[in-house]
């Protein structure tokens, strides 16, 4: 090991290799969504949850499934419907006839990657069953707390054009998603390539894991060790304050924390052990926009974040 290479650098190299391996594997299935795939993987490395919101049929669920298959961990899919109960998500205490005692049977929330498909089709009470796990890494049932597996990530999807029998996600839940991503339609070349890939066996059927749970844990440790200098932290604070000064509801402190963690993961993706302002700028839109409620006749959230990035001094 040369004098200018530290243990931190080696860890960052390993984490970058893990991230790039997962990204390349997912892109064997997903076409033309490189930025979204990078955002999804950096969220996992930063310990965050992701909301995929877009029109039907653009690959939201397939993206989540491809990520889950790329990691050798436990994956569960929850199809959210109007009649889904909180216990269907968390699990419940069930009476065992043999032992004559109640025992806890865990629900699908107990996995490393949880796909909450069409999350806005379930009522708020059922949606709220995710909150404790997303924020604290645990589930409490009948007064008893059960930790969820680590690492743990929720990837939720919702269609942005259907309002029939859907429920608006409460602000407290939206704020627990590190990022909200939009995929959009592919262009002509991308869609043509997609059609070629699905001729015959769908590529996801042959997709295998390229990262272990230990790989993800090590990469997360590398992300948490990335340095964030005081000047960068002040920059994040000023960006958040700009949104609060120019919207009815601006970015919360949880949002500022999420942006710092996302920027740390972005630095690792570029094999750096420290955050630069460009990392913050790359992550700000996906991390901040969904937390903002515009003032009457004010800028839309995306425009407000753009204005903050253009107006706030680095």
Can you give a write-up of this model?
The protein is α/β, with parallel strands linked by helices. It has two domains: 7-83 and 112-125 and 151-225, P-loop containing nucleotide triphosphate hydrolases (Rossmann fold); 226-314, Orthogonal Bundle (Helicase, Ruva Protein, domain 3), CATH 1.10.8. The protein is 45% helix and 16% strand. The protein is built from 13 helices and eleven strands. A five-stranded parallel β-sheet has the order 3-6-9-1-10. A two-stranded parallel ribbon has the order 2-11. Helix 1 (7-26) crosses helix 2, helix 10 packs across helix 11 and helix 11 packs across helix 12 (277-288). The longest helix has 20 residues, at 7-26.
Ordered list of secondary-structure elements with their pairings:
Blueprint: H1 7-26, H2 34-45, E1 50-54, H3 60-70, E2 71-72, E3 75-79, H4 86-90, E4 91-96, E5 101-106, E6 113-117, H5 124-127, H6 131-136, E7 138-141, E8 144-147, E9 153-159, H7 171-174, E10 179-181, H8 188-197, E11 211-212, H9 213-224, H10 230-245, H11 253-269, H12 277-288, H13 301-311
Parallel strand pairs: 1-9, 1-10, 2-11, 3-6, 6-9
Antiparallel strand pairs: 4-5, 7-8
């Amino acid at each position: 090991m040369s004098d200018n290479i530290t243990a931190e650098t080696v860890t960052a190299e390993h984490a970058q290799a893990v991230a790039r391996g997962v990204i390349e594997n997912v892109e064997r299935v997903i076409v033309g969504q490189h930025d979204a795939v990078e955002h999804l993987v950096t969220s996992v490395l930063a310990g965050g949850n992701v909301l995929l919101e877009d029109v039907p049929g653009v690959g939201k669920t397939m993206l989540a499934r491809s990520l889950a298959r790329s990691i050798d961990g436990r994956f569960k899919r929850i199809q959210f419907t109007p009649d889904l109960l909180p216990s269907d998500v968390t699990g419940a205490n069930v009476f065992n006839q043999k032992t004559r005692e109640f025992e806890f049977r865990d629900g699908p929330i107990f996995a490393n990657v949880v796909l909450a498909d069409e999350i806005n089709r379930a009522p708020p009470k059922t949606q709220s069953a995710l909150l404790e796990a997303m924020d604290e890494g645990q589930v409490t049932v009948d007064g008893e707390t059960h930790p969820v597996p680590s690492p743990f990530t929720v990837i939720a999807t919702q269609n942005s054009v259907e309002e029939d029998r859907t429920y608006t996600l409460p602000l407290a839940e939206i704020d627990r998603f590190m990022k909200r991503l939009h995929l959009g339609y592919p262009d002509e070349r991308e869609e043509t390539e997609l059609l070629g890939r699905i001729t015959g066996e769908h590529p996801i059927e042959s997709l295998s894991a390229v990262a272990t749970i230990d790989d993800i844990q090590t990469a997360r440790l590398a992300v948490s060790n990335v340095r964030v200098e005081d000047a960068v932290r002040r920059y994040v604070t000023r960006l958040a304050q700009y949104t609060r000064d120019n919207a009815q509801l601006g970015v919360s402190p949880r949002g500022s924390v999420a942006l710092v963690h996302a920027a740390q993961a972005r630095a690792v993706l570029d094999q750096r052990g420290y955050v630069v302002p460009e990392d913050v700028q790359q992550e700000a839109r996906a991390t901040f926009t969904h937390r903002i409620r515009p003032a009457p006749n004010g800028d839309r959230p995306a425009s407000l974040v753009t204005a903050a990035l253009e107006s706030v001094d680095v």
